[in-house]
Amino acid sequence: MDAHYDAVIIGAGPAGSSTAILLARKGWRVALIEKALFPRRKVCGECIAASNMPLLDALGIGHAARDLAGAPLRNVALIFQDRMVRAGLPRFNDRRHPWGYALGRESLDTLLLEQAANAGASVFCPWTALAMEKAPEHMSCTIQEARSRETRILAAPVVIAACGSWETHHRAIHASSGGPDVRTALAGPQSDRHRSDLFAFKANFTSTTLQNGVLPVLSFPGGYGGMVVEGRSIATLAFCVRRDTLAACRQAKRGATAAEAAFAYVMQACREVDLMLAGSERLGPWLSIGPIRPGVRLAKNSGALFMVGNAAGEAHPIIGEGISMAIQGAWLLAEALLAQKPEALRSKEHQDSVQRKYVVAWRRAFLPRIRLAAAFAHIAMRPALMGAMFPILERHPWLLTHAAAWSGKVEGSFLPENKTRYNAES
Ligand SMILES: Cc1cc2nc3c(=O)[nH]c(=O)nc-3n(C[C@H](O)[C@H](O)[C@H](O)COP(=O)(O)OP(=O)(O)OC[C@H]3O[C@@H](n4cnc5c(N)ncnc54)[C@H](O)[C@@H]3O)c2cc1C
């Protein structure tokens, strides 16, 4: 064994770094393992809902994040074919920060990782968690440095999987000797059922005519997406396309990459997007991942292995709530863990009691968002349904405001001072 910690956290996305900050601040010895070299870009629409602003402040990066972000997000638009309807976003009940922001993941995730180090976490980046093993009194995690291939074994009473969901866990981290509960948790209890047929793409653009502070949501046959200005006048376009639609796009644009073919299709399907990007220039390469895995993976019986962020569960990205669920999930997990002394978590009884408390709180907070997002995604990808709904939204655009609120955008029950919900006046 090379080193002992109170918790080993795998993955330094918003879920892992936020958990690391909260535990390290309370004196826990935390190891945070991240395989990518930071800063790194990521497939994401990069919108951070207003409800996270007090949490980012509490994590100590609120000012820095807002300084780098685009204008406050005050409006939402829905783009379908050549039509667009626009409405105000719901106002969060916090006088200092009533609106959300958009910020590139290369900035947000780096701020959080640096803050985890400042809080006292030992950061291993770029190191990959390769394997996990369960011993009677602790978990051990084998990690490997990206360049030198040096390996180390870290031990802790608990391991926290914050490694996202877009690489299948059982392939990403080997747990052959981890015992049945750990293996089930890493694979996801119903992993195959949760593998969707959606592939996701993202690119950044300069010189667009997209208005700063507006969040257009795109609906097109076989997919959905979103656009936003994320700071420094850089626009992000991120979208998901169903497998059969992607195959048809590639057939129509032979020789093009999947991202280029899908992008051409989105521009053709949503005239407004084409207009906003006319004359723009792409910054950096397209990023792609998939298939994404909306659904719940959290299990009460995973013993010393805790899951947070996308590793725990994920909503269809049409509602842009994944960063919220990652940061807010970190709050719920840290609250449950900190109710115990780290050494108490060596016992299965204490682990199970923390798991139960955490899973109940997590499901209460996030299941409604996951279900609503699935319904919105279903409608957005089907032109017959969206075609029937669009005239209603044109007549009553405030329905979009409420849809954003129902999606959790202004759900503020994570800090005591933000217990109240939202103010729909925009
Ligand atoms: C198209 C699209 C658009 C989206 N738009 C939005 C949006 O606008 N707003 C929003 O809130 N959410 C959005 N999301 C969702 C959001 O991106 C995710 O929910 C969020 O990134 C989850 O955070 P996380 O910390 O759980 O995981 P991640 O951000 O995926 O971080 C996991 C980290 O773990 C690391 N890792 C993985 N395996 C290992 C290993 N074995 N060892 C070490 N490190 C490892 C990875 O390198 C990564 O850095 C979108 C998603 C998609 C697909």
Automatic annotation (TrEMBL):
Pfam families found in the cross-reference section: FAD_binding_3 (PF01494)
Gene Ontology MF term list: FAD binding
Gene3D superfamilies: FAD/NAD(P)-binding domain
InterPro entries: FAD-bd, FAD/NAD-bd_sf, Geranylgeranyl_reductase
Limits of the FAD-binding domain: 5-339
Source organism superkingdom: Bacteria
Protein name according to UniProt: 2-polyprenyl-6-methoxyphenol hydroxylase-like FAD-dependent oxidoreductase
Organism lineage string: Bacteria, Pseudomonadati, Pseudomonadota, Betaproteobacteria, Burkholderiales
